[in-house]
Amino acid sequence: MSGARTDIEAVEAANTALYEAVERGDVDALSELWLDDEISVVHPGWPVLTGRGEVLRSYALIMANTEYIQFFLTDVEISVLGDTALVSCTENILSGGPAEEDGSAGPLVGGLVVATNVFRRTEDGDWKVWSHHGSPVLVESEDDEEDGTSPDDGDIEM
Hints:
single chain; alpha+beta; Nuclear Transport Factor 2, Chain: A; six-stranded mixed β-sheet; 4 helices; Nuclear transport factor 2 family protein
């Protein structure tokens, strides 16, 4: 690890390592990237999970039930203030289920999630994940565009 790397570069590397560990399904590597205590995660559609046990179990469950996942991060913004760093990004996710009976790849599904990752610098100088929060992005379908409705149209009364 080069001493010339800036905090922003180090946080970016830690953020990238987080997504790469999930892509590989490597629970041990993922575990090394998180702080030892006081951590939390909100996966899209899930309640907040707190503590190492709950957080790491949630990732193990996701990885065990996802045959293939790849993240393409866009709109990455990193800010560092002292020993805390904030990363916001859009996770462009490509995932798939089990392979078909003939051995070909299973169906792939794309999705968008806006994520906020909070990192803290440890006494060793490493940046570790303190919190991850992912929120799904609702995307209009072609059907919505054709009938003039949008995901926001609904039974809302004012």
